[in-house]
Amino acid sequence: MQVYTPPLRDMRFVLHELHGSAELSTLKGLEEVTPDLIDAVLEEAGKFVTEVLAPLNQSGDLEGCTYENGVVRTPKGFKEAYKAFCEGGWNGIACDPQYGGQGLPASLNKLVEEMLCSGNLAFGICPGLTHGAYEALKNHASQELKDRFLPKMVDGVWSGSMCLTEPQCGTDLGLVRTKAEPQADGSYKVTGNKIFISAGEHDMAENIIHLVLARMPDAPKGIKGISLFLVPKFLPREDGSVGPRNGVTCTGIEHKMGIHGSSTCQMSFDEATGWLVGEPHKGMRAMFSMMNSERLSVGTQGLGLGEAAYQAAVVYAKERLQGRSLTGAKHPDKPADPIIVHPDVRRTLMTMRAYNEGCRALAGWVARALDLMEHADDPQERQRAEDFTALMTPIVKALFTDLGFEATSMGMQVYGGHGYIRDHGMEQYVRDARIAMIYEGTNGVQALDLVGRKLPAHMGRYLRSFFHPVLNYMDAKLDDENLGPLITPLSKAFGALQLATAHIAEKGLKDPEEAGAAATQYLRLFGMVALGYMWVRMAEVAHEKRVSNPDDAAFYEAKIATARFFMEKLLPDVAALWGSIKAGKASMMALDEAMF
Amino acid sequence: MKILVPVKRVVDYNVKVRVKSDGSGVELANVKMSMNPFDEIAVEEALRLKEAGKATEVIAVSIGPAQASETLRTALAMGADRGILVKVDGVVEPLAVAKILKGVVGEEAPGLVILGKQAIDDDCNQTGQMLAALLGWPQGTFASKVVVEDGGVAVTREIDGGLQTVKLNGPAIVTTDLRLNEPRYASLPNIMKAKKKPIAEKTPADYGVDVAPRLTVLSTAEPAGRKAGVKVGSVAELVAKLKDEAGVI
Lengths: 596, 249
What we know:
The structure holds two protein chains of two kinds. Chain A is built from 17 helices and eleven strands. By secondary structure, chain A is α+β, with helices and mostly antiparallel strands. Chain A has three domains: 8-140, Acyl-CoA dehydrogenase/oxidase, N-terminal domain (Butyryl-Coa Dehydrogenase, subunit A, domain 1, Orthogonal Bundle), CATH 1.10.540; 159-287, Beta Barrel (Butyryl-CoA Dehydrogenase, subunit A, domain 2), CATH 2.40.110.20; 289-582, Butyryl-CoA Dehydrogenase, subunit A, domain 3 (Up-down Bundle). In chain A, the strands form three sheets. In chain A, strands 3, 4, 5, 6, 7, 10 and 11 form a seven-stranded mixed sheet that branches. In chain A, strands 1-2 form a two-stranded antiparallel ribbon. In chain A, α8 crosses α16 and α9 runs antiparallel to α12. The model of chain A has no long low-confidence stretch (mean pLDDT 96). Chain B is an alpha/beta fold. Chain B has one domain: Rossmann fold (3-Layer(aba) Sandwich), CATH 3.40.50. Helices cover 28% and strands 27% of the residues of chain B. In chain B, the strands form two sheets. Chain B has a nine-stranded mixed sheet, with helices on both faces. In chain B, β4 (57-64), α2 (68-78) and β5 form a beta-alpha-beta unit. The chains are: A alpha+beta, B alpha/beta. At the A-B interface, α2 of A face α2 and α5 of B.
């Protein structure tokens, strides 16, 4: 059963106790973001998600979006929920107050995003894309475009979309064919076909602002000749109201595995009026500020669904009576014991829990870096935060969505056959989670980004933003009575990460295919070490708080036990990953193409 | 006209309440607390009256521990203008609450006090009525519709077997029933504004009220578990059982 309750206690733990929310209000522009405000926002967001969005999750999946004559209708209730969402100010939660946003930090916004993803992933996609488009415009568009479009996008009256993919052009954006012809008035006429455009057409917003990758007539070939254009569905009038329809139409929507409540559109641009965003031929740069923000958000989708699946699995494991405990009946008054008595069910639940809580902690660390990047006074601190974010973005995207999908699958497993049928909503989580491993750059591409771009950047400078704090921490805590037993496996795993990093640097330099062959497993190894570090840090806080806050001892005891589970039962995976990485590409690339 | 809205911090309606092992009460440690749902309806009604130009200021008052200020912030985030926290630790019985509220009314001189008809923790359903008696004001309880008219208020009440409309001359007491309205969600900008709205701190002594309990709780126990049912063979047997065993007909 989809029974989601926002994990507010754990969210407060991550934000206040693990990463120290007091620091936030010392940053310029965040003076008002005090713990009591954070709690009030989390509380209300949780209420909105539980009462308004979550009830539309299964019905939205069942009904899906429908297409007729260029018009897309979202499932029943979505339009009203979107209106309430925007009226509540949630659409602009992290946007600049200059454009009507609430200016709240990423540290808080990422938790609200997580709740949205848990409660109703399909609903959250449209506001997510608007936010991505907002980022690209805010960082790259002319002031005139910003003033004209951003306020309405921040309040959600207008939504956004990212139009990258074309039938012949997915991961390799250098293949974009859509054309943009310059006009005398400084605008462009954009012509071409785009596919897989999430929220490209729908009935929730008054206008849709498409950000479109296209090529100017004089553009160099390949990726260096791509420019970014703003193409609205309706051309706005001077007074800000929507004017005539622009030459952009939705020609169909995809029938797909999951996220049925979100439209995936085929878009046709026919001499549609658009305006250049940023510099000519530098569209990829602008697109990347959108994509980096989106990639972190997609990671959050994995976490959100993993959490929802975990909660549902726990309810069922406590309720479902089958068989007896291996050590004798635990509930002799009942016809059988609840399945939570069985070690394998425990393994499943603990794995989900350890991944979810670990990912939430790691997301909190990255979100803090996003806030420091934006608000810290010290330029060096901003730089460090930027390095760390750049390094962790592919890891958060790929690791969280891989683990999120695994968690939804484990959730289904706990339900057995009742998870595979539709009624309990478990199979929806699996279907919805699967796309997150694909869009915004497949997880394979994320791994290549990590080993190909992020590791070598500035002679390995990005890496230091992770390696140094972890090394220092392990040195400091090695003799800690409580933490010592957790530091030992962490330092072993960290050693494997160092060896794997050196292996890729050395072998990859001679043969890029070696780096490519190691990439996916390296990303996982890196991610597991990052989670391990988070778990030791969480255990540290829990050991302190267990004493200072005895009323909440059960919460902290659970943290400590889960930390131990992660270190003992999950982190050892890194040894196998390193073993496989070490073996190199030879056996992977051995077969001749014709032999497949 | 000012409107005074008392709000109570109670165990959240989603929480499955557990009785303490020694039977001395219910478990409150680490339990999620929220505003009493009937009080949310009261806040909403007051805000709607203000938005319709019938009231000038909405004042939320809470009587309880320091954390009750969170409940007041919730009311402020919904749109109330300011708060009053009367700090009391431990149990406060309806009569003490009504006496404190009488003191607050004396200071604030509201034209209307809108209360929840009852709080979902002890379900007393007494405070509004007691306050009306102490003040000598007219009362319209279990309201499903409230219309402020010249110099008074028409309250449609939910009563057994239907609806009854009473016309009260102001100032008056109204207590809310479930169907009066659907409370709004606090918007993000209002949550942020609420932080800056004033909350005055008071004590029962400020109003000369002794909050010492007058009642003794003998014990607290979980309701008995539901017993297994029986199948009856005929209508006659069912009627006989209802008559003789259940004693309901």
